[in-house]
Design a protein that fits this description.
Among the domains are: 84 residues, Calcium-transporting ATPase, cytoplasmic transduction domain A, CATH 2.70.150.10; 117 residues, 3-Layer(aba) Sandwich (Calcium-transporting ATPase, cytoplasmic domain N), CATH 3.40.1110. Helices cover 49% and strands 18% of the residues. It has 25 helices and 26 strands. It has a seven-stranded mixed sheet, with helices on both faces. About 5% of the residues have low confidence.
Length: 736
């Protein structure tokens, strides 16, 4: 018994242009011994699976995929940026069959080449030429010569399609579009419809080319992201500068970025100050001034002055590469609608084949009808039996939406997230750092009797030393401005929702909420009135104290973001109720909420926020917007957790969605994009099912024939793909 642990393996596959392609690859590969958890992503052209060593070799997996007519190469041999382009040897596999099988129509993946140089393009030209020759022969030569010319054109044109159908049949997949096409063409020849059979073969080839072009357009968004990172960088070593491949940069190296150049790697500025255009990464249109110590992203444009930048991330792990990976991996998080359609399509094709067989047999056998007439109508039904348009209707829309959103700094991790965001009716929003700037300032010092401002700041800065919380940073900045160095402190401990405590100069001290301070004797007699007055003005008040010894109060103000009020108005206009959740006191929360025109819940500990989200979720979908670190339980509990952050690991990887521009105004934009995507999906499903239904009826009634049937199949696929591509031009800032 083989007890070896299964390993996750990935390949890039070329030539998958319609939904049935992914289905064929999945069905063929998952039959192999030792292979499990097979996932084929159509838009990112990725095959991933678990492979138990010693059962099936990788060469056998690749051979099976190639036998179906696709190119395949291990994932590690692609571009380092995470794009789905293949190296030359893989392109050769895509264009030439090294295992004895013709790739025929599925050889699309040679990117950057015109369609007529691909395998599909050559098949179109070849079958078209055969058809023209047959028409010429039929027109110039009397007798059966024209009929035989059309037969030859049909047989030669359908041969590569039949070869792929046979390969799929051997792998246990009888119901493929190639199989239906082959049966229809041969059946048409048998009943004497040679001219129409040849025309159908040509239209099938044209349809596959159009599908390939449309699928390529849908993938262009991800490829464009990869192309944002420059291919070369100016590396500084020993006082000299030389040009090197950007993919070879190592963490810690220094690069020179001239004005107008793109930054080649994620890094930190060590010398120079310049305006940085981050729109390629975050979608933010206005350049931001960055100087020494500030982080920068690969792909951003240095607009003004020369910069020396220290590389902080490997090229394969820069922000754009991670965004690309997230967009690609998002295909696996399929929407409920997509899963339903996938299940539906599994019985749709066999059902249509069964109906076609009944149409061919029942009228002649039961009613003495003409065999040729009803066989012809049954063959037309076969060509409508492929559910390509229906199956691709959802992933094409989702891939376009993910690409469009990524260009605008809006990341959603898959179709399930898009569907949940589109149906949400409430948005719970954290206050500090989300609705507000997250950069509070100490605006008032109120020492207790007998305590100086310097003493108050000294103890407060000692307790908060080393903390990254926005309130702590504000206190430390005020102490630094006053020339006060934080005293030595140890045993610092965060009290969630209450404050911080530490031993400062050997004495336990606290910086905490007034309510918690009151339980420990940390408020002096006049403090209550001061607190009410300050909180009513929208300030956050903290108490500084030793055990039973009040030291005073600090009042901090954190202003709402400039776009917060407009964002809340947009949400309400979309029929969504925004609710502010905050651990701050009710008076401060009300002052902020009143300015924004929203409801609030205040004084909430992390567990309170979690309970609030659960309660709202019971009344319908709810989104939670936070910083991705605090409030993590609430973000996970919500239907969709949205993290605010400028490309941080947390923002990209912990939540269901992320807003890279750090603008609360992007929350309605993200929901709007999700809603537009779902409308697009519903349109696609209507187009796919509507056309199928119409031509199923007209084919049975004899109104439409074989060539119309093949146009209905490939035409529907092209239509839904082109409709999905409209999402690439959607402006997320536009309220639906």
């Amino acid at each position: 018994m083989n007890t070896a642990k299964a390993e996750r393996r990935e390949w890039l596959i070329t030539g998958m242009d319609c939904a049935s392609c992914a289905t064929k690859v999945t069905g063929a590969v998952e039959r192999l011994p030792g292979v499990s958890d097979v996932s084929v992503a159509l838009m990112s052209e990725r095959l991933s699976l678990n492979l138990t060593p010693g059962r099936t070799g990788t060469d056998e997996i690749e051979g099976v995929v190639r036998s179906l007519g696709y190119g395949i190469v291990p994932k590690g041999q692609g571009t380092s940026s995470g794009a789905t382009r293949l190296p030359q040897d893989a392109r050769d596999h895509a264009g030439h069959d090294h295992s004895g099988h013709d790739h025929g129509g599925h050889d699309q993946a040679i990117r950057g080449q015109p369609w007529y140089r691909t395998g599909k393009g050559r098949l179109v030209l070849f079958t078209g030429a055969l058809l023209v020759i047959a028409w010429v022969v039929s027109a110039l030569i009397a007798g059966p010569a024209g009929h035989w010319a059309f037969q030859a054109a049909c047989i030669i044109g359908v041969a590569p399609v039949a070869r792929r159908a046979y390969a799929a049949l051997r792998l246990g997949q009888p119901f493929t579009i190639e199989a239906l096409m082959t049966i229809a063409a041969i059946g048409a020849l048998i009943i004497g419809a040679a001219e129409e059979a040849a025309l159908v073969v040509f239209l099938f080839a044209v349809g596959e080319v159009l599908e390939g072009v449309a699928a390529g357009k849908a993938r262009d968004g991800i490829r464009a992201l990869a192309n944002l990172v420059p291919k070369t960088a100016l590396l500084e070593t020993d006082g000299t500068t030389r040009e090197v491949p950007a993919a070879s940069l190592l963490v810690g190296q220094t690069v020179l970025v001239r004005p107008g150049d793109r930054i080649p790697a994620d890094g930190e500025i060590i010398e120079g100050t310049s305006g940085i255009d981050e729109s390629p990464v975050t979608g933010e249109s206005l350049p931001r001034t960055r100087g020494p110590g500030d982080p920068v992203f690969a792909g951003a444009i240095n607009a003004e002055a020369a910069l020396r930048i220290r590389v902080t991330r490997e090229p394969a792990d820069n922000t754009i590469a991670r965004i690309i990976r997230l967009v690609e991996e998002a295909e696996e998080a399929r929407a409920p609608t997509e899963r339903f359609i996938d299940r539906f399509s599994r019985w749709y094709m066999p059902a249509v084949v069964a109906v076609a067989a009944l149409v061919m047999l029942v009228p002649p056998l039961a009613f003495g009808a003409d065999w040729d007439t009803w066989i012809y109508r049954g063959l037309a039904l076969l060509l409508i039996g492929c559910p390509c348009a229906l199956v691709i209707s959802v992933p094409a829309s989702i891939a376009s939406a993910l690409s469009s959103g990524a260009r605008q700094g809006l990341l959603m991790k898959g179709g399930a997230v898009i569907e949940a965001a589109a149906s949400a009716r409430r948005v719970a929003i954290d206050k500090t750092g989300t609705l507000t700037r997250g950069q509070p300032e100490v605006v008032h010092l109120l020492p207790a009797p007998g305590i100086t401002e310097a003493q108050l700041l000294t103890v407060a800065s000692g307790v908060e030393a080393g903390s990254g919380h926005p309130l702590a940073q504000a206190i430390l900045q005020r102490a630094e401005a006053a020339g006060i160095a934080p005293p030595p402190a140890r045993d610092a401990r965060v009290l969630p929702g209450k404050g911080v405590e530490a031993l400062v100069d050997g004495t336990r001290a606290w910086v905490a909420s007034p309510s918690y301070a009151g339980t420990l004797g940390g408020l002096h007699a006049a403090a209550t009135g001061d607190i009410e007055t300050l909180e009513a003005q929208g300030m956050t008040v903290v108490a500084v104290f030793h055990q039973d010894e009040p030291l005073g109060l600090l009042a901090l103000r954190d202003e709402p973001r400039p776009d917060a009020a407009e964002a809340m108005s947009r949400l309400k206009a979309m029929g969504i109720e925004p609710i502010m959740l905050t651990g701050d006191n009710p008076r401060t929360a009300q002052a902020i909420a009143d300015r924004l025109g929203i409801s609030f819940r205040a004084g909430m500990l992390p567990e309170d926020k979690l309970a609030a989200i659960r309660g709202m979720a019971g009344q319908g979908g709810v989104l939670m917007v936070g910083d991705g670190i605090n409030d993590a339980p609430a973000l996970k509990q919500a239907s969709v957790g949205i993290a605010m952050g400028s490309g941080t690991d947390v923002a990209l990887e912990t939540a269901d969605a992320a807003i890279l521009r750090d603008r609360v105004g992007d929350v309605p934009s993200l929901i709007g994009l999700a809603r537009v995507t779902m409308r697009n999906i519903h349109q696609n499903v209507t187009i796919a099912l509507g056309l199928k239904a119409v031509f199923l009826v007209t084919s049975v009634l004899g109104i439409t024939g074989l060539w119309i049937a093949i146009l209905a199949d490939t035409g529907a696929t092209v239509l839904v793909t082109l409709n999905a591509l409209r999402l690439l031009g959607h402006d997320p800032a536009k309220t639906p």
